[in-house]
Structure formats: C-alpha cells, structure tokens
Amino acid sequence: MKSLGETPLLLFGAFDRHNFGDLLFPHLMTALLPGSSFEFAGLAARDLRTFGGHRVRALAAAGKARPAHLIHAGGELLSCSAYQAAAMLLDPATAAAAIARYDDDPVAAAAWAARQLGTARSLPYVAGRDAVAPAGRLIFNAVGGVEWALLSDAQRAEARTAIGQADWASVRDHVTRDALRREGIDVPLCPDPAVMVADCFGAVIRRHQQQGAVKALREAWPRGYLACQFSADFGDDASLDALAQGLLRASTEAGLGLVLFRAGSAPWHDDPELHEKLLRRLPPGTARRFPSLYLWDICALIAASRGVVSSSLHGRIVALAYGLPRVSLFPPQQGRRPDKLTAFAETWEPDAVPRSVTIEQIEPALRQALALPESMLQENAAQLRVQYRHSLAQWAKLVAPPAE
Predict the structure, then answer these.
(1) With 0-12 CB in 10 A as exposed, 13-18 as middle and 19+ as buried, what is 400?
(2) Which of 286, 301, 318, 326 has the fewest beta carbons under 10 Å from its own?
(3) Using CA atoms, how far apart are residues 241 and 281, in angstroms rounded to an integer?
(4) What whole-number distance in Å separates Cα of residue 226 and Cα of residue 199?
(5) Domains of the chain with CATH codes
(6) What is the pLDDT of residues 51-93, one digit of tens each?
(7) Which pLDDT tens digit goes with each residue over 179-234?
(8) What 3-state DSSP class applies to 171?
(9) Distance from first CA to last CA of the chain, Å, rounded?
C-alpha cells in the first residue's frame, strides 16, 4: 500500500472548462510544488490539453478512493453555486436552453444541477474533509468568495464547515476575508497564484511571443498594442458603442493598436460574435481579433502588450505579474453586487492603479494607467511574488513528499 507521501497531490478546481485563470492554476501549482506528483479533478471529466490545460477527472467519480491530500488550487470557489457550475460545464447552446428553463426556478435549478454534477453539494467546488483520506490534508489556496453575503444560509454553512475542517486556508481579497471574519473564521490573505506566472513560466511565454499570431501583432504595431477583452455582459449596442469610442480615443492618443482576445469560451464568458460587432464600429486597421484560445498564447499576448483592458480578473493579474498598465471593466449589469476585480485591486495594488471602471471611463482610466511609472508597477509585482511565496511556504510543508 502506498503511503500518503507517495500518492499524488489532487488539485481541485474549475479547470474542467475553458477559463483563462482556471487553466493557469494547475500549471502554477505543479511548478511551485516541485518534487510532487499530481492528479487533477474538477466536477466533470474533461481533456483541455488542446487549449493548454489538463486532462481532468470528475471528483465525484473517485468514489471511496479518497485522495491523500486535496488542494483547492484557487479561484472564486466560495460563491460558485451548483447551478452556475453545471451551466458553465455545458456547450453554449445547451447552456442557453438550461438557463432559459431554470433561471427563474431555483428549486428546479438546484435539483437539475445535482443530477448534472453527481453531487448534492450546493457549492460543488468547495470540498470538505469527507473528500480526503483520514490522515490527508485539506488545503484552500488563495480562494475567493466576494459574493458571500448573497449566498443562502445553507450555502454559507456548507462553506464554513469545509473551511473549518481545512489544514490550511487563505483567501485572495479583503472582501472575502472580512465576510469570513463575520462568520467567526479568521484566515490570512494571499495573492492569487497567477502573480507567479512570469516567475514560473517566463521562458514558455517568451517563446510564444516570438511565434504565430503574437509575433504578427508585434510586427503590425511596432509601437505596441493594447490587449482588450470583454465578456458577454457587454453585448448590448450601447455598451459596444461606448467600448468602441473609449478604446479608439485612448489607443489613438497613445499611438497603439487594439487586439481583441477571449479569456474564456465557457458559457457566461466571452462571445466571439461581439468582437466582430466591435470591429465594425472601429476604423479599418485600428484593431484585430486574436484568434487563439491556447493558454500560453493568451499569456504571451498580454505579456507583449503595452497594457490590458479587461473584464477578466486574470487578464488583470497576468498584466500585474508583468508590471504592465491595466484597467478593469465594470459590467453594466453589476449594480451594487461585489466585484472580484475591484476587491483584488483594493487588496493588493497601489491606489494610483485604476481599478474597475465603467465603459464611459475607459479613456481617462487608460490615460492614467499608461502614465504610471514602470518602476512602481514592477515593484508591486515583485512584492506580490514575495507574499505569495511566503504564504505557500506555510502549507507546502504539510503536503510535501517525505525526504528520502
């Protein structure tokens, strides 16, 4: 029989669907925990290697063969409901039909999600002690949950129990930390692991900058370009008009091109048709679509840019890791709901760096971001790398293989 130290570490998260940050997490964990072997689990069996991801198994399929150690690799796991998770694992057409059927019927939606996912957990990306071998370790690594206050009592109780049973837990923003403190749970802050992407995968990303679509873009705009991403939340005509106007004015003033990229193809993420609609609102030659959904191509596109405008949190964090100007977009429908991008920036970034802005504020926010001293942005990135490694050191020893 294998000992706990000889069995693979199970990384658990939402890397069973195409989303930029979730695809990054397993790579970062494997690089930051050398000497260990790994398995990867989500809620569904998927093979995302075509996009630079991993072959992932369904956690529920493990049955009684519980892993020695389970590490929640990161992400907004504490407020992802079963219904949201189940819908995001479908293809877009099937997801649209499910949303139309269940969006206004939460009881039926919960029952449908349980059938789809094979688990009755209301927060299915939050695994508790029952998912781990008796002597194993349960880790929550820099997870988020800014919408904690919007969860039901049952959902909060489920998350409290799991975190309370953990051997280590950290959260990535002050909003989540403060919400847990109000529940009597005090956990430390830790930057999102993506702050380590340049440190861990700089050579891989440089290779992708020097080939294919990224190389072509660098040649097309020798003075540089802005990497721009926006989710399907910005799909109405008024939002697209405002996006086009703000991006055009800012890029023209700075003498930069515009490159439209997608940070996720899962439902509720990015819609490629909106890129075409935006391009039709821009003068010819000012913008291009970035065709690739491959993880390292997206990282290379961001790293080679002069700055990022994005509604994706990890579009922002990868820009941060490279010491680049960044502006986050606040969705028109957000209202007073907590915003994970704002929460992250408030927790970890200098006040001078623009946070989430409305589409009407794109031009002044980009002007402000592009004027920031490079030394300040690089220092911010270096500080967060130090802080992430400090947090990692606290729990890595709990799951480290025994010394030979």
Answers:
(1) middle
(2) 286
(3) 7
(4) 22
(5) 4-194+385-399 (3.40.50), 198-384 (3.40.50.2000)
(6) 999 999 999 765 456 788 999 999 999 999 999 889 888 888 8
(7) 999 999 999 999 999 999 999 999 999 999 999 999 999 999 999 999 999 998 99
(8) strand
(9) 18
